[in-house]
Write a structure and sequence with these properties.
The chain is α/β, with parallel strands linked by helices. The chain is built from seven helices and seven strands; from the N terminus they run ααααββαβββββαα. The strands form two sheets. The chain has a five-stranded mixed beta sheet, with helices on one face. Strands 6-7 form a two-stranded antiparallel sheet.
């Protein structure tokens, strides 16, 4: 089991998440939010497109930075930049954004030529990323490109937690699994914590645009 980062940010329980990852000893890649909070940068490196998104995002990074104590910030700073997994005779590179940048978005519609240039020097059988919060599976020149989705902040319209189960045997399967949890209760906690109500709303809709 591996985690591809962004343990903190947007949610009302950053310290409980860090505690859980510590307890379970799950190898974790540093996300851009982990970097922003761990190093107290005052910025998450997110690509906000509207003024309201920027205001809400700033409120989130400020609240989370205040809420996470020094010990947990130290843990966030110590997370891996990337993880190479060798299993079943295969090499899987785990990153948050991309092999190049922690906050680079590798969307499903990324041109194949662009992915090919990125993958060629890596010499891996699979590249597994997060950051977009939208699960997908592509194959480029025999290399699997997998986005594992998001457990706590989906953007594909499905409010359930999402993770990827990757089979490294000969069939090389990828299955996206969904887990139910009390979404409304967490949305209520977001509001009670003083975080922007838009985060609670997005959680309930699975990040889908209501307009």
């Amino acid at each position: 089991m591996y985690c591809l980062g962004d343990l903190v940010g947007y949610g009302p329980r950053p310290n409980e998440v860090v505690s859980l990852l510590k307890t379970l000893e799950i190898p974790t890649v540093m996300g851009n939010y982990d970097d922003g909070v761990g190093y107290e940068r005052g910025d998450c490196g997110c690509a906000y497109t509207t003024t309201q998104e920027k205001l809400d995002g700033q409120a989130s990074i400020d609240w989370t930075t205040r809420t996470v104590p020094p010990g947990n910030k130290e843990y966030l700073r110590g997370l891996e930049k990337l993880i190479m997994v060798e299993a079943g005779g295969r090499r899987l590179l785990l990153v948050h954004g991309s092999p190049r940048k922690i906050n680079e978005y590798l969307y499903e519609d990324r041109p194949e030529a662009s992915l090919r240039r990125m993958l060629k020097p890596l010499e891996v059988d699979a590249l597994v990323c997060g950051h977009t919060h939208k699960p997908y599976h592509r194959v480029v020149d025999g290399v699997q490109v997998i986005n594992d989705g998001s457990v706590g902040k989906p953007k594909d319209g499905d409010p359930r937690a999402c993770y990827a189960l990757i089979t490294v045997a000969e069939e090389r399967g990828v299955e996206f699994r969904r887990g139910e949890y009390p979404v409304q209760s967490v949305a209520d906690e977001i509001k009670e914590a003083g975080l922007p109500a838009t985060f609670a709303d997005a959680l309930i809709t699975g990040g889908a645009d209501r307009s």
